[in-house]
């Protein structure tokens, strides 16, 4: 059984920050669960384009307001507490935070924790990231 505490993760190297967001990675590939589990906070007014070509991701909004745009179709979906979106087709998307957005994210395959977004907004597959 694994027990993780958010406040401990936030004080460790599993807490990753980048341009306008912070991700507390409670479960990573090394934990052996087959997925990674993150609490991610996106700062108000931010806009990010991501394209997880090597991962699928599910995102559940705990708090805040924003939108996610599918760049293949141009469809824009409102995000608020209680909304889930899943990038089941490796969807290139733009995420916008109208207010601070607090989300829970699950990645498959799991991330190692050392990934950085490349120029396309993707993480490299875990075997290439290490």
TrEMBL record:
Pfam families: Ectoine_synth. InterPro entries: Ectoine_synth, RmlC-like_jellyroll, RmlC_Cupin_sf. The keyword Lyase applies. Keywords: Lyase. It catalyses: (2S)-4-acetamido-2-aminobutanoate = L-ectoine + H2O. It is an enzyme of class 4 (lyase). Its EC number is 4.2.1.108. Pathway: Amine and polyamine biosynthesis; ectoine biosynthesis; L-ectoine from L-aspartate 4-semialdehyde: step 3/3. The keyword ATP-binding does not apply. PANTHER family: L-ECTOINE SYNTHASE, PTHR39289. Belongs to the ectoine synthase family. Catalyzes the circularization of gamma-N-acetyl-alpha,gamma-diaminobutyric acid (ADABA) to ectoine (1,4,5,6-tetrahydro-2-methyl-4-pyrimidine carboxylic acid), which is an excellent osmoprotectant. This is L-ectoine synthase. It comes from Novosphingobium anseongense.
